[in-house]
Specification:
The chain is α/β, with parallel strands linked by helices and 391 residues long. Helices cover 40% and strands 15% of the residues. Strands 3-2-1-4-7-8 form a six-stranded parallel sheet, sandwiched between helices. A six-stranded mixed sheet has the order 13-14-12-11-15-16, sandwiched between helices. Strands 5-6 form a two-stranded antiparallel ribbon. The longest helix is centred in the middle third of the chain and has 31 residues.
Length: 391
């Protein structure tokens, strides 16, 4: 059986997990501008912290080769999967889609018949703009619903597959996305591109709203000297509410939720809304509340246990703790940070200590968004809102 030739552009969690899944049954060229990533992947090593990605690159039979971008890379390919990052631009109030647009343009220039799957998160209406601009229906938006640190697992066992577009390639796309998965009876939804783009943004905004709700519940309980766990357990037993995303934190952060909530709000221009705006505002208030609670204790030195949001992550971009740090430091309190992923002696001018014993000894209070065994003997120093010890 003839293998499809697939180019995957952008090797973050989405792109790399897609590359591996597709390389089980197809010939994949994985593309990234970072030469270090490319070299690691070609050696069977993962540039990202994800146990399944590490295992598959090392032990599975994959038809995958990584390269840096170059002319002709799309020429003989059947599919291009675009998974480059789209950061939210606070000036334009929209995602910066330059890398996605450039990849689409290059792919079509080199191969007018190529089928393009956009897996980067984009503003509502973007895919239709690309279809109109290039006068072709072979461009589809296929959102991903992956957790950082479990991206390949979520690709192998997808909650659902969404395909948005207006062409006639839905069944073909479905077959390559389902092939290699390990889950039976995967729900497939097809719709127009704008509906698929909306589904992605609303999905992440709902998760952000749920995080904000339980964080505000926790703020209430703390202030009223009530046990947060008792209240949350009572709510979570209601099947209409359930127990997912109910563990309090210092606020939602990471790569997806902050930018996706802002992009959805921007798409609401001239449409009445309050929840989207309130979710973003609530998250800011939560981080301020956490910082104020620490300041009330009047410590001289506050230790920050990890900049990453959770166990198994290697990304601290937009992590909520960073805003908490700024508020605490503005009150003249010394802040030190324990983060093994940072090799420098400082982060944003705050001292980094990679020796845990020294860090714990110097810290009067240790802030931990999520706790683990390393902190078990220091419970008298630890300030956390992690009640259920889950992400």
């Amino acid at each position: 059986m003839k293998k499809n030739k697939i180019v995957v552009v952008g090797l973050g969690y989405v792109g790399l997990s897609n590359s591996i899944l597709l390389a089980l049954n197809n010939s994949v060229t994985a593309v990234d501008i970072n030469i270090d990533k490319v070299n690691l992947i070609n050696k069977g090593l993962s540039p990202l912290k994800d146990k399944d990605i590490e295992n598959y690159l090392k032990n599975e039979s994959l038809d995958i080769h990584a390269e840096i971008p170059h002319v002709g890379i799309y020429k003989d390919s059947d599919f291009a999967v675009i998974a480059t990052s789209t950061n939210y631009d606070e000036q334009t109030h929209s995602f910066n889609t330059d890398s996605v647009e450039k990849s689409i343009e290059n792919a079509i220039d080199e191969n007018p018949n190529i089928i393009i799957l956009i897996r980067s998160t984009v503003p509502v209406g973007f895919t239709d703009q690309m279809i109109e601009k290039h006068q072709m229906n072979n461009i589809y938006f296929v959102p991903e619903f992956l957790r950082e640190g479990s991206a390949l697992h979520d690709s192998l066992y997808p909650s659902r597959i969404l395909i948005g577009g207006s062409g006639n390639k839905f069944r073909l796309i479905e077959s390559i996305l389902k092939e290699g998965t390990k889950k039976n009876d995967i729900d497939l939804l097809t719709m127009n591109a704008a509906e698929a783009e909306s589904s992605k943004l609303f999905s992440n905004t709902y998760l952000a709203m749920r995080v904000a709700f339980f964080n505000e519940l926790d703020s209430f309980a703390q202030t009223k000297n009530l046990k947060t766990k008792n209240i949350i357990n009572s709510l979570s037993l209601d099947p209409r509410i359930g127990s997912g995303y109910n563990n309090p934190s210092f606020g939602y952060g990471g790569y997806c939720l902050p930018k996706d909530t802002k992009q959805l709000l921007a798409n609401y221009k001239n449409i009445p809304q309050k929840l989207m705006e309130a979710t973003i505002e609530s998250n800011g208030l939560r981080k301020k509340f956490i910082a104020d609670e620490v300041v009330k204790m009047k410590p001289k030195v506050v230790g920050i246990y990890r900049l990453v949001m959770k166990e198994g992550s290697d990304n601290f971009r937009e992590s909520s703790i960073q805003e908490v740090i700024k508020v605490i430091a503005s009150e003249g309190i010394k802040v030190i940070i324990y983060e093994p992923l940072v090799n420098n002696e400082s982060f944003d001018e705050f001292e980094i200590l990679n020796d845990f014993k020294s860090f714990s000894k110097q810290s009067e209070i240790i802030l931990a968004n999520r706790i683990n065994e390393e902190l078990s003997s220091l419970s008298h120093k630890v300030f956390t809102r992690d009640i259920f010890n889950v992400d």
